[in-house]
């Protein structure tokens, strides 16, 4: 009985294989394309961390023009700066113990928020920033698309007669 069930499950015809491969290929392509579109839409990401004494925190959001970010730093003494994608300094403060800044991106690209705790106690960083996916995510999406194309090609090669 068990052998009959196993052989029934494993009895995949050429027609079934064709449809399975075609559906799988289309699924890979649809997921990869949807992921590509979604990764180019900025998402708000919460900033909520504690930075110990004599440590540096660097945040590098990838922002669109007119994307917004808010950062609130409170606690120990710190130095803080924001650089735009051209490495120009947007804002820089030194030896502060409380600072709040609202950023509206003037350029598209990767911004750099650098906070250095120069005090002797912990520092709290709060706020939120809009960011898109990195170039590493693009590689994963391309792998999904390429895999989908390959699976579709194999399905077409097997063909359904």
Shape, per Cα inertia axes: elongated
> What is the rounded distance between the termini?
32 Å
Pattern of helices and strands:
HHEEEEEEEEH
Structure classification: alpha+beta
Low-pLDDT stretches are: none
Share of helical residues = 25-40%
How many β-strands, per DSSP? 8
Radius of gyration: 25 Å
Counting structural domains, the number is: 2
Q: Residue-averaged pLDDT, rounded?
A: 88
Biggest sheet character: 6 strands, antiparallel
The CATH architecture term of the largest domain is Sandwich
CATH class label of the largest domain: Mainly Beta
What is the CATH third-level topology name of the largest domain?
A: Jelly Rolls
**How many helix segments?**
3
Multimeric state: single chain
- Strand portion, in percent? 35-45%
